[in-house]
Specification:
five-stranded mixed beta barrel, alpha+beta
Length: about 120
């Protein structure tokens, strides 16, 4: 009997490719917690609340809220509730229809913090 030759087919090539891919994927993968710790934290320029202003004429004023029409766009009407620090001051003050006001409010909300 003749000794058999080792098989020179594609089976050893598939094994070699699988080993390389497995090693490469293990080297690239890192757990999410390690990845999060290695990234630098983003620094925010401003931490506090941001404010905007709204100028207009008073339509309705109550002890809890004020409704104002924009002075440039007559179709734009906004109602603002009062911040907890502003509420006691507004219960003592009265605005009439047509009074010009400038409302300082917290950006993204309808909460007024100051009314001029």
């Amino acid at each position: 009997m003749k000794p058999s030759k080792p098989s020179s087919g594609p089976s050893w090539q598939i094994f070699a490719i699988a080993a390389v891919l497995l090693t490469a994927s293990a080297a690239i993968y890192s757990p999410p917690s390690a990845l999060a710790q290695s990234l630098p934290r983003a620094k925010h320029a401003r931490v506090g609340k941001r404010y905007d202003t709204f100028k207009g004429n008073v339509l309705v004023f109550t002890a809890r809220a004020i409704t104002v029409r924009d002075e440039k766009n007559m179709n734009l009407v906004r109602t603002f509730s009062f911040d907890s620090k502003l509420l006691p001051k507004m219960q003592k003050r009265h605005y009439k229809w047509g009074d010009k006001v400038k409302v300082k409010y917290i950006r993204g909300t309808d909460t007024a913090v100051k009314i001029h």
